[in-house]
Amino acid sequence: MQNPPVFTPSATSAFSSSQDHTAPVQGASIEVHALQRQFGSFQALRQIDFTLPAGRVLALLGPSGCGKSTLLKLLAGLDRPSSGSIAFAGRVVADAATFVAPQQRKLGMVFQDYALWPHMSVGGNVGFALRMQGVRGHALQERVDRVLQQVGLADMASRSPSALSGGQQQRVALARAIVAQPSVLLFDEPLSNLDRDLRESLCGEMRQLLRDMGTTAVYVTHDHEEACLIADEVAVMFQGEIAQRCSPQQLWGAPATVQVARFLKLGALLPAWSDGHTIGLAQQHDVQVLASLPAQHINHTGTVQAGVQRMMGHLLVPDDAVTLKPAPTAEEVRAGVLSAQVVEQHYTSGRYKTRLQLCGADQAHDVHAWTRERLPVREGHVALQLDMAQLRWFASQTT
Ligand SMILES: Nc1ncnc2c1ncn2[C@@H]1O[C@H](COP(=O)(O)OP(=O)(O)OP(=O)(O)O)[C@@H](O)[C@H]1O
After folding, report:
1. How does pLDDT run across 126-148, given as a tens digit for each residue?
2. Residue 60 beta carbon below 6 angstroms from any ligand 1 atom
3. Domain count for the chain
4. Best exposed site among 26, 74, 266, 374 by fewest CB in 10 Å?
């Protein structure tokens, strides 16, 4: 199975390290139980359950409309659940009988569009929450300066937000969110307006800052790499439900469903069947055998049941699991060596992403491989060698 994509946090992090901080903030645990949110007849969140221990970072990852922002708003107190409960550090902040206002939840929030007040200086923006708490004078100045230093913006307190780059504005938004030492930080796609390089470095820096502060955080994103870099746990959501919640390593190593594997773009998902001994690639869920693979060498999610029953399902073939060899001989084909035709090649980052159509199969069985060299398209055949250890079987139904 391929490794999770990993950003390397910038070696020249602009965020200051933990020794510059005052005592680390103790984050609050988050307990969410049977949470639902309905808009008219539409169920935006169905039965969300999780516990996030204090100081951990949870990324909510999923396609547009799956309910990430709805869940974040419920945590923030910007919306009320239809049913279920939310507790921070064991204290219920929302259920059928309770609703604690956002300003009383000890939260910090960072939004995609920064949401800075344009009429206030950087320092004014960052110090606003403290002034609301009655902090004034030297104490206010000292805390604002310290947090600006933490996010790499020392000496920028008097600037106007409009005189800053997008990345700098998001640093101000982060400083504003952490200055009052919240127990829980909520992030709503905070980096999606920034270019890729900046996203990577800022994401690495934010991860370090969150670790140093010990704040519990929930981070909404639709970017797989960002989720894996920032979070201890990733919850993948589809249609108002959490399909899988686990560490980034587990997510990439053992996706729980075909849908998760497809969303993470882990590789080709080929219609297949298994009788427990053999996994056969099936033409359009027919039982015709395009290839037979030994089930015991293949990772599986769901049942691989030896015996008479034939399970229909999917076989995940990651791009890295496919190695191309010269055209197989007639004898090799008879011995079960898979052959395919190159149907497309795209050059990217020094190599070709090569789409292959298995011989005798339709497009549903196309797989991809990486090659260093250009290959003839729609001419002749190549042999495919599959690394069994990287394949994964997903059972879907029994026939
Ligand atoms: N106030 C509302 N009234 C009716 N439907 C809503 C409301 N808020 C959200 N929804 C619906 O709930 C679903 C989930 O929306 P949500 O904003 O949580 O998705 P999301 O995963 O954050 O998507 P995106 O990544 O595009 O921001 C969507 O179908 C959306 O249209």
Report:
1. 999 899 888 999 999 999 999 89
2. no
3. 2
4. 374
Gap between the Cα atoms of 119 and 374, Å rounded: 57
Gap between the Cα atoms of 95 and 104, Å rounded: 15
- Cross-strand bridge partners of residue 340: 358, 382
Structural domain boundaries enclosing 314:
266-395
Residue 183 sits in the same domain as residue 56: yes
Report the separation in Å between the CA atom of 39 and the middle of ligand 1, taken as the mean of its atom positions. Answer: 9
- Tell me the whole-structure pTM to 2 decimals: 0.87
Give which of 295, 322, 320, 297 is closest to 309, Cα–Cα: 295
Cα(64) to centroid of ligand 1, in Å?
Answer: 8
228 and 276 fall within a common domain = no
Domain co-membership, 243 together with 296? no
Instruction: Quote ipTM for the complex.
Output: 0.98
- The residue whose CA has the least distance to atom 4 of ligand 1 is 39
β-strand partners of 324:
384
Judge if the beta carbon of residue 45 lies within 6 A of ligand 1. no
Verify that 166 and 186 share a domain, yes or no.
Answer: yes
Report the atom number in ligand 1 closest to the C-alpha of 72: 18
